[in-house]
Give the backbone structure.
Amino acid sequence: MKIPEALEWEEQLKLFEQRGMDVQDAAQNQTKLEHISYYRMKEFARPLAKINKVDGEVRIMYQGITFKQVLTRYYQDKNLRINLLHAIEKIEVSLKTKVSYILGRNYGAFGYLDFSNWTNRTKFKKFEVEKRQYYFKNSLLKSIERSRNSELKNNYNFNEDGFPSVWIAIDMLMFGELVSIIELMSKNNRKELADFYECSVKELSSWIKCLNFIRNVCAHNSNILDIQLQTTPVKRNEWDEFIYFISDGEESRQTNRLSIVLFIIIELVTKINPKYKWKNITSNIRTIVNSNPQNAHLLGFKNETSVNEMVKYFKKH
């Protein structure tokens, strides 16, 4: 098995050129490569490349592709990630506030620590609930040790075992931990939470799992433009006029790309702040599609026109 070699920056750029890419201003592009990395650029070039298998070996060719095109895709992705993360964090903060409100009002400041109070005992067995309660408490105590939250200095906010009130505890959770807590909640509690966002329990459950994945992608600087969801979230019928459907014989299935994520974000954010400024996200999407109309499909839209119609949908909401 051939072991990858350590290449100088100039050699890395040369490798792109050998595979057909027009590197144009080599000196300037080498400087970019020194700060972005070869493999990150390769990732953004891949959807534009021709990929074949020769004697069992994958061959990637970049004929007709310029280094500038790939660099543009990288920056388009970066800008979109930043703006999506802003919107998702708004959803995350709102969910934490609503969950702690429900648990605090129904079970008191420290009732959340006994999971049997508020979990779905029909769906989850007693042993499973107790196990999750143990790991939750253990993780929470570690989070308290790391936190610099000034409220943690006030003994009034703690019980005799050293656990904080529900309002502080839920606020300290990571998004993934919050999603797990919501999944554990009883039917009535989840219904109350979903009602805040004017959606069904099934929709909310599906959407927040999707957003947790997308948030992690954005936070870890991964490629969002070419994202393909492994589990397609629940959609609403009114989205059908915008999103791309993949034909599979006599049947068709909805896209698993970014467009459906955008509609989820719209639905939730507008319930939190009807006056939310969508300009940055819509500008990002338009720029991406205008640079190459084929990008509409890559993002999961029917065509360039449906992207423009989606912008109107944003404004209407």
